[in-house]
Amino acid sequence: MMISKEEIHALIQLLDDPNAVVNQTVTQNLMDQGSNILPDLEAAWEGSLDSDYQDKLMNLIQDIQFKSTDELLRKWLSTGASDLLKGAYIIARYQYPDLTLEDLEKPLDKIFKDVWLELNNNLTALEKVRILNHILFEVNGFSRNTKNFYSPQNSFINQVLETRKGNPISLAVLYSIVAQRLGLPVYGVNLPRNFILAYEDEMHSGENFDEVTENILFYINPYNKGSVLGRKEIEYFLKQQNIEIQPSYFTSCSNPDIIVRILHNLINAYHKSGYREKAEHFEGVLKILTGSDRT
Fold first, then answer.
1. Which of 14, 58, 169, 260 is such that its CA lies 20 to 30 A from the CA of 270?
2. Tens digit of each residue's pLDDT (9 = 90 or more) over 276-286
3. Would you say 153 and 163 are in contact if contact means Cβ atoms under 8 Å apart?
4. Smallest Cα–Cα separation from 259: which of 199, 184, 170?
5. Helix (H, G, I), strand (E, B) or coil at 229
6. Dmax over Cα atoms in the chain, in whole Å?
């Protein structure tokens, strides 16, 4: 139930009450108000000189932000998860709660327009990919982050757009978002130890594995500046890595599958960096995607 501004301010003041029961009740009431009260909490934090009180305010602000982002992720899933950018944005929002979709749209729109100006209907699929590769990797300078491969920042779409560096999954997400906005049928392929893209032939469809893979004109490796691959090259890669071949390694995956892959990368990165609490938090987020924490 929504309450008035006066009641909100009174509750915020009661956060400093030494009585644990009062504090717990007040905290829950404020949590129930959602992200609408964040400006009031931030104003109270800025206006206080009491470090303990500031800590309580900051913890509450973070809890509300996490809850709000959880709700966004659940809504994205329940409404079909058709917008990959929205999914990537929501994951970044856990780390950067003030991030907006508009913050991502502006640089993406610039890339889109630069590629769009070079495309025409007479180009082949390969020619279109060469233009996209040129704009992304040569003009804009996107590249693999080999120096800090395990940095969590490689998995956040806003950081990739800002630094122009990423890991296989984040560069593939960026690539496919731009490609799909251009009307190119480019989708993620959940390949182990890498993440690639499939350029599909929309005029061809099939039901069994061989027919479905025939629907793919070629594969793209954004981690290697958009190099084009065939099925045999993927099979060779899997044999080199001693990985048993699975049909899913050759066919496109869903947007939730892509976000799950991002989360696994984040969890691994935070564990390697020694940030156990961060890793555990994103393990909780992962449960929302995998269905073990659906409400």
1. 58
2. 999 999 999 99
3. yes
4. 170
5. strand
6. 73
